[in-house]
Amino acid sequence: MRRSNPSLRVLLVVPDEQARGDVRLLRQALDLTGMDIVGQTSSESHALQLYFQALPDAVVLDWRVAPDEPARFVGLLKRMAPGSFIVVAVPALDSMPARAARALGADAISAPADIPALLVGRAPSLMF
For 42-60, how does the pLDDT look when each residue is reduced to its tens digit (9 = 90+)? Predict the structure, then answer.
C-alpha cells in the first residue's frame, strides 16, 4: 500500500563538527530532490531510536560517525531492522570503510555527492 505523501523519508546519521559543510550540502541536495529528512543525529544509539520512531525508507550513514568501526551500525541496524535500506557514505568506493560496510550488509555504498541521485533512482522501490 502506498503512502499518501509520496516523498522518500530519509534518516541521516552524520557527524556533527568535522563534516558540517558536507552535511549541509547533503541536506540541501536531498531537499532539492523532494525527500523528507525525518531525523538527523550523530549518535548510533539515537539513530536506532529515531529509526523505530520515524520508520524511514532509507538511512544514510556517514562512515565518520564511528571512524574506528565504520560499519558497526550497519550490522546492528540490519540485525534489528532487517528490512532497512542503508546507504553508507564513504571516502572512496574501494576504501576500508566501504569494504566493511559491504561485508556487514549495507544496501548501497556511495560518495556523499552521489547519494541524492542514488536515492532518487531507488525511491519507487523503497517507498511503502
Answer: 888 899 999 999 999 999 9
